[in-house]
Amino acid sequence: MPERVVSALVACRESIGEPPTAKKYQRWRMELSSEDRHRMPSLTAIVPIAYPTWNDAREAAGVGVAETLNISHGPTPKWTIEECSDLLREWLDGGGSGTIAAFTEWIDGQRSGGRDVPSASTIRLRSRMPWSGIVATAKDGSL
């Protein structure tokens, strides 16, 4: 999937002549013929499936960053990458299968027991990687 995303973002940038925002990518994709559109990943397939953020997808494709204001998006994150990594290793060491669905189920169980833990989405955002990369790096202790 990442190769398709990179190709699509490069094609979009070449077509519109500037780094694509998510909105511009979506508009560009919808203007394609039906056949071409089905070859391009949807916005929801890009974020969060292939990449955790739109900026991560653009960075991977090397298409540049759109001219936008750099504004703070709220307070400092509640969970550090180290806390996320420790939790993920705990789950894996306890027999976690590595799938996001199984992790989410485990997290739900932890929360129902009163434990305050980050979600899979939070871990993806903090690590800035797709889930498969998160699990691979957590297994070798480098997340």
Structure commentary:
This protein has 143 residues and is an all-alpha fold. It has 9 helices and no strands. It is elongated, with a radius of gyration of 18 Å. The relative contact order is 0.13.
Give descriptors for this structure.
9 helices, mainly alpha, elongated, 143 residues, 62% helix
Q: What secondary-structure arrangement, pairings included, does this model have?
A:
Elements: H1 2-16, H2 22-30, H3 34-39, H4 43-50, H5 54-61, H6 81-93, H7 100-112, H8 120-127, H9 131-139
Helix pairs in contact: 1-2, 1-5
Mean pLDDT: 85
**Helix count from the secondary structure assignment:** 9
Q: Residue ranges: pLDDT <50 for 5 or more in a row?
A: 68-73
Largest sheet: none
Short description:
This protein is mainly α and 143 residues long.
